[in-house]
């Protein structure tokens, strides 16, 4: 189950072959609200600019206070369609071969569906009523027989990647984002930093355990890993009343060289004292690297953490510095161009 921000979705739906000129991707949370009169009111941090690869016509669309959508989705029947899936399916017919940006406005509501954007469907923009108003939700899981990539509630299929974009996708920066999930809801094998983010753990299915991360590094030569910096890990509203019934861990190793560091982050009391979990009860590889540095909160006590060879309580800032935006992502060389605020060091 996941909330997602439709207002900023254009940056995510642009084909990867239009990658930004630096080998990185960065995201900052923004929100768009719709007044009772239907007028868009953007609430965005001052000075936030779009990367150079976003065409002028596109960022004008995003900034337009009177955006005129091509299709409207509304559960109450006041729009063109009642579901996002129906609207997406209608795009080819509605646009009639046009290559200009096609805008779908999704009104406030909880949409229980799984939206898939075909790779052939370019120049599609979606906007909604804000992160807490326009919500797409679902309950697919591996336990029910679905593959991991069949579980997201919103997916864009990528037909092709050029060589540069394949490399570019391996470095990511997220700032001021709210991320919700249950099992392995931050996973993969990129070099990624979550800074000033809220990682909200939801209630899992009966008998399941929550794991925030599942990092997939599988070679010592890879410069990938997950760094969680100056953030908050806490129970979401559906888990908080019953969190004693479910164990929650910071992560588990998806690859033999899995690497995850949590630093200067507030850990709620939902975190199990062991901190980290084996993968399917298999002994963890000695080659993983899990670290914690100067965390706070009821879940930050490391005295009862796992005793794996690859687990580290980081006691010196020079070691922790390796996992900052400046060092781990070389962020000083590319993030300033996006005008997204960031902390380079600890």
Automatic annotation (TrEMBL):
Where would one find the signal peptide in this protein?
1-21
User: What is the E.C. number?
Assistant: 3.1.1.11
Broad class of enzyme this protein falls into: hydrolase
Write out the catalysed reaction: [(1->4)-alpha-D-galacturonosyl methyl ester](n) + n H2O = [(1->4)-alpha-D-galacturonosyl](n) + n methanol + n H(+)
Against InterPro entries, the record matches this protein to:
Pectin_lyas_fold, Pectin_lyase_fold/virulence, Pectinesterase_Asp_AS, Pectinesterase_cat, Pectinesterase_Tyr_AS
> Where does this protein act, in terms of pathway?
Glycan metabolism; pectin degradation; 2-dehydro-3-deoxy-D-gluconate from pectin: step 1/5
Q: SUPFAM superfamilies, per this entry? A: Pectin lyase-like
One annotated GO molecular function is:
pectinesterase activity
UniProt entry keywords in alphabetical sequence: Aspartyl esterase, Cell wall, Cell wall biogenesis/degradation, Hydrolase, Secreted, Signal
Q: What is its main location?
A: secreted
What positions does the domain Pectinesterase catalytic occupy?
Answer: 70-155, 167-332
Question: Coiled coil where?
Answer: none
- Provide one Gene Ontology biological process annotation: cell wall modification
Q: Which residues form the active site?
A: 184
Highest taxon of the source?
Eukaryota
**Where found in the cell?**
Secreted, Cell wall
Q: Quote the function comment for this protein.
A: Acts in the modification of cell walls via demethylesterification of cell wall pectin.
Question: What's the protein called, per UniProt?
Answer: Pectinesterase
Species of the source: Zingiber officinale (Ginger)
């Amino acid at each position: 189950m996941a909330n997602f921000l439709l207002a900023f979705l254009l940056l995510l739906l642009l084909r990867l072959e239009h990658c930004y000129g630096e080998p990185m991707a960065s995201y900052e949370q923004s929100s768009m609200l719709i007044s009772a009169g239907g007028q868009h009111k953007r609430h965005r941090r001052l000075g936030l600019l779009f990367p150079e690869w976003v065409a002028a016509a596109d960022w004008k669309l995003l900034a337009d206070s009177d955006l005129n959508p091509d299709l409207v989705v509304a559960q109450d029947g006041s729009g063109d369609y009642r579901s996002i899936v129906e609207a997406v399916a209608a795009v080819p017919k509605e646009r009639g071969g046009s290559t200009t940006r096609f805008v779908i406005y999704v009104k406030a509501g909880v949409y229980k569906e799984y939206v898939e954007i075909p790779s052939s469907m370019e120049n599609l923009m979606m906007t909604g009523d804000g992160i807490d108003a326009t919500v797409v939700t679902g309950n697919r899981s591996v336990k029910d027989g679905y593959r991991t990539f069949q579980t997201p509630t919103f997916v864009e299929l990528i037909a092709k990647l050029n060589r540069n974009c394949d490399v570019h996708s391996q470095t990511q920066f997220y700032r001021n984002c709210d991320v919700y999930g249950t099992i392995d809801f931050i996973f993969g094998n990129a070099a990624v930093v979550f800074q000033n983010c809220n990682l909200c753990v939801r209630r899992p299915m009966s008998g399941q355990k929550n794991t925030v991360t599942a990092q997939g590094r599988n070679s010592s030569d890879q410069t990938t890993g997950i760094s969680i910096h100056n953030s908050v890990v806490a129970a979401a509203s559906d888990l908080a009343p019953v969190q004693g019934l479910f164990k929650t861990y910071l992560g588990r190793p998806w690859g033999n060289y899995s690497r995850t560091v949590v630093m200067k982050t507030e850990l709620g009391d939902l975190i199990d004292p062991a901190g980290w979990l084996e993968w399917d009860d298999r002994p963890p590889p000695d080659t993983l690297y899990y670290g914690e540095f100067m965390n706070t909160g009821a879940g930050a006590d490391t005295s009862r953490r796992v005793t794996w060879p690859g687990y580290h309580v980081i006691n010196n800032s020079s070691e922790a510095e390796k996992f900052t935006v400046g060092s781990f992502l070389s962020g000083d060389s590319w993030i300033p161009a996006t005008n997204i605020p960031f902390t380079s060091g600890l």
